[in-house]
């Protein structure tokens, strides 16, 4: 069975459409909403959709860890609330799961933005380069991993920020596999923060993390 874990925080605008995209499989799945203290309609939307719901504070790392702990599937798919796998994703995911060679590997989606602007295409190209050269997909590309491998790695660290970078570094570049499917992420944050300023800020924060700065301190800078 596949357990889909979605971390949320006041995600009422994105959660419903994302749940619709994830409702395609005809094989056993469960969806777990790992909430960080939403004060909007997120819990209501999750309940109406029949998902499991767990709440925890402390940032996305603790949310993902709590969602995984609550999951019962043999495989885990972590997807952000504003990231929507495209049609056909379920077949690609199932093929990955059924390949025994992927028992100790992890998969991630191609990154796309829902903005027709040329700047969005440049960001997509930058992300593709980062994945190919640095083996560094972020959480908004999803992460598909077997429960066995997830537990072997120790799961998501309960850190406020950089939980995705921490996880993929432990997985290792040779064990990260690009899936033959894309996921479209909301461009709202890029449109709000700027297509130049936001990537620079992200890279700066990743650099601080790789140099050893504690994630909580990076979180203060990021915010």
Would you give an account of this structure?
- This protein is α/β, with parallel strands linked by helices and 223 residues long.
- It has a single domain, classed as Spore Coat Polysaccharide Biosynthesis Protein SpsA, Chain A (Alpha-Beta Complex).
- It contains ten helices and eight strands.
- Helix 1 (12-21) links the parallel strand 1 (2-8) and strand 2.
- The N and C termini lie far apart (37 Å).
Overview features:
alpha/beta, 223 residues, single chain, Spore Coat Polysaccharide Biosynthesis Protein SpsA, Chain A, 10 helices
Quick summary of this structure?
The chain is of the alpha/beta class and 223 residues long. The protein has a single domain, classed as Spore Coat Polysaccharide Biosynthesis Protein SpsA, Chain A (Alpha-Beta Complex), CATH 3.90.550.10. Helices cover 44% and strands 21% of the residues.
Number of discrete domains = 1
Q: Would you tell me which CATH topology applies?
A: Spore Coat Polysaccharide Biosynthesis Protein SpsA, Chain A
What is the CATH homologous superfamily assignment? Answer: Spore Coat Polysaccharide Biosynthesis Protein SpsA, Chain A
The termini sit apart by: 37 Å
Task: Give the number of helices.
Answer: 10
Strand fraction band?
15-25%
Low-confidence stretches: none
Q: What's the total number of strands?
A: 8
Helical content stands at 40-55%
Quaternary state of the chains: single chain
Q: How confident is the prediction overall: mean pLDDT?
A: 94
């Amino acid at each position: 069975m596949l357990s889909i874990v979605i971390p949320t925080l006041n995600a009422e605008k994105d959660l419903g459409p994302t749940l619709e995209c994830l409702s395609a499989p005809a094989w056993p799945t469960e969806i777990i909403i790992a909430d960080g203290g939403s004060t909007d309609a997120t819990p209501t939307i999750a309940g109406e959709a029949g998902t499991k719901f767990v709440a925890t504070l402390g940032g996305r790392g603790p949310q993902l860890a709590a969602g995984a702990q609550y999951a019962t599937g043999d495989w885990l798919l972590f997807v952000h609330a504003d990231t929507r796998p495209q049609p056909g994703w379920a077949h690609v995911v199932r093929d990955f799961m059924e390949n025994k060679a992927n028992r100790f590997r992890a998969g991630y989606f191609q990154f796309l933005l829902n903005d027709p602007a040329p700047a969005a295409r440049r960001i997509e190209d930058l992300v593709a380069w980062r994945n190919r050269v640095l083996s560094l997909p972020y959480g908004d590309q999803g992460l598909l991993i077997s429960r066995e491998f997830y537990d072997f790695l120790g799961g998501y660290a309960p850190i406020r920020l950089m939980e995705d970078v921490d996880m993929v570094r432990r997985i290792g570049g040779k064990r990260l596999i690009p899936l033959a499917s894309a996921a479209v992420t909301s461009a709202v944050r890029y449109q709000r923060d700027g297509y130049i300023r936001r990537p620079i800020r992200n890279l700066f924060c990743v650099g601080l993390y790789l140099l050893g700065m504690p994630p909580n301190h990076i979180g203060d800078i990021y915010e």
